[in-house]
Amino acid sequence: MAFTRPRFGVYTPLVTFFNDDESIDFEATLSHAKRMAESSVVGLVLQGSNGEAPHLDHDERKDLVRAVRDHLNDLGHTELQLIVGCGAASVKETAKYISEAKESGADYALVLPPAYWVAAMNASVIEGFFRDVAAKSELPILIYNFPGVTGGIDITSDSIIRLAQANPKIIGCKLTCGNVGKLQRISSTLSAESFAAFGGKSDFFLPALVAGSNGIIAALANVAPKTHVELLRLWEKGDLKAAQALQSRLSQADWALSKVGIAGVKAVVSYHFGYGTGKGRRPLGVSNVNSLSDDIVSSIQALVEVEKKL
Asked: What is the CA radius of gyration of the chain?
């Protein structure tokens, strides 16, 4: 059976909004999904790092994916693809998350390497984990490389290439590590027809495109999805000078956003777009824009002004 890679374009790793009692704020989260869809992103990543996946239980994950899928369908955005975070510490639970995600309306599973036993996670063990997950998976898989949330585990291009060449269900990767050389090696070795290598941060969106990225999956798209879509349009049009100017704004704002944490991302969205709050699930705290430093606020404000003109 042939598995289709995700479409080329901008994907927003959706934040999950919470009520004061830490229950999921479905109204705000669905409003956010609607704004993303209306901004011409081609897909959403649910229950990734920005979605606070480790803070959601199985039932909440299923309910959230189903709510977003149904909401998008009701709005006529049936073509938007859903990539759902399914990583866990064992092959068994990862496969269960994937099965539940498929049942709830997911198109793809995004899988981190297991990180509880960091010292044991050499290349052989990591590759074995992904082979075993792929054998059981009910969805096509994207490998998620993000050393910042896996105790420093950094999957090599060699491992990703070997896994993709041996497993037709492994159809992509998200590289939040920021290693453009790794992205280039993967994209130039694996066929773009069957494998989608994504850059994972707005900070290097344009360089990632040059290196063969299948678009971008980036936290800053929660704030400025239209700006990301516009940079992609400029790149495809061949207007490198304008794309570079827009990349500069994205890089400044992305650096600022990286300093505020997930709750801060939600606070920025709430402040500028009028839904949700800057509340994370404990142990994450609560953030609001008034508590952020002027340099952070000004960089993000400059990008929001660009966003609202598009």
From this structure: 18
Residue range 92-139, pLDDT digits in tens? 999 999 999 999 999 999 999 999 999 999 999 999 999 999 999 999
Tokens 């400029």 sit on residue = 234
Distance CA 28, CA 210 (A): 35
Q: What CATH number is given to the structural domain containing 182?
A: 3.20.20.70
Instruction: Provide the 10 A C-beta neighbour count for residue 135.
Output: 11
Q: What is the pLDDT of residue 38?
A: 98
- 127 C-beta neighbours (distance < 10 Å), count: 20
Q: What residues have CB less than 8 Å from 141, skipping those under 6 apart?
A: 98, 108, 109, 110, 111, 130, 133, 134, 167, 169, 170, 171, 172
Alpha helices (H) along the chain: 26-37, 58-74, 91-104, 123-136, 157-166, 180-189, 205-210, 225-237, 240-257, 261-273, 294-309
For the cut 70, the answer to whether the pLDDT of residue 141 exceeds it is yes
Residue 24 contacts residue 46 (beta carbons within 8 Å): no
Does 253 reside within a domain? no
Owning domain of residue 95 = 9-227
Is 118 inside a domain boundary? yes
Overall number of domains in the chain: 1
Q: What is the per-residue DSSP string for 251-281?
A: HHHHHHHTTTHHHHHHHHHHHHHS-S-SBPP
Q: Is beta strand 170-175 parallel, antiparallel or unpaired with respect to 196-199?
A: parallel
Looking at the annotation, which residues are catalytic? Answer: 144, 174
Give the integer Cα–Cα distance in Å for 205 and 9: 11
User: Six-digit token pair at 108?
Assistant: 């793809």
Please name which of 151, 160, 153, 205 lies closest in space to residue 187, comparing C-alpha atoms. Answer: 160
Q: What are phi and psi of 198, to 5 degrees?
A: -110, 135
Per the annotation, binding residues for pyruvate are: 217
> By C-alpha distance, which of 172, 146, 114 is closest to 258?
146
Amino acid present at 139: L
